[in-house]
Design a protein that fits this description.
Layout lengths: L2 H13 L3 H15 L9 E4 L12 H9 L3 E7 L5 E5 L6 E3 L5 E3 L12 E4 L3 E2 L5 E2 L5 H8 L5 E5 L20 E3 L4 E3 L1
Parallel strand pairs: 1-2, 1-6, 6-9, 9-10
Antiparallel strand pairs: 2-3, 4-5, 7-8, 10-11
Length: 186
């Protein structure tokens, strides 16, 4: 399928998820993270969920990472339509931006090259590790600034598509994707 078709299909599939189902699946995904060899790393970048879009609730995963004394880094959309990154602390305050994404108001900036693991939002992914996001390109731009060894992990309520037909040369593939059924390694 093409990206625009996948976006439409998976947005519709998400509409059918109840808050209880989202909570249950999000906890299941967080537990699957324990199966991935990432625990020697220290800087973990994670998105904050847009509840109105019925995204994966990342709070269970954030709790897991903090419980293991990991540095959790949260993105914020800058005025240049790119991402800035801030360390999540007890003093971090949040405000929703124009897309209803909760963002840190300010905080301790973390440079991209320090980030070792990135958890990515997505609508769909395929068996080769290609992902379909919302189409704005924020994450592909951000990932190009990271160390090439930075691990990229998608979080999905649904299983892999066979193939995304219109993958672009600037699309950066995932290293892993976690679904309710399994952990995909690419």
């Amino acid at each position: 399928m093409l990206k625009h078709e996948l976006r439409k299909n998976y947005k519709e599939l998400r509409k059918g998820l109840t808050p209880e189902k989202i909570s249950d699946l999000s906890i299941l995904l967080a537990n699957h993270v324990l199966e991935i060899p990432i625990w020697d790393f220290f800087y973990f970048h994670i998105f904050l969920s847009i509840s109105e879009h019925k995204e994966v609730d990342t709070l269970p995963l954030i709790t897991l990472l903090q419980g293991r004394d990991k540095n959790v880094v949260i993105p914020k959309v800058s005025s240049k339509n790119s991402l800035e990154h801030f360390l999540l602390t007890d003093n971090t305050t949040f405000k929703k931006n124009k897309w209803n994404i909760p963002e840190p108001v300010d905080g301790i900036p973390i440079p991209e090259e320090k980030i070792e693991v990135v958890f990515l939002p997505l609508l769909a992914f395929d068996q080769s590790g290609n992902r379909v996001g919302y189409g704005k390109g924020f994450y592909d731009t951000f990932l190009r600034k990271c160390n090439p060894k930075t691990l990229k992990i998608g979080l999905s309520f649904f299983e892999a598509e066979t193939a995304i037909k219109d993958v672009h040369e600037n699309d950066i593939p995932l290293d892993y994707c976690i679904s309710p059924e399994k952990v995909y390694k690419f």
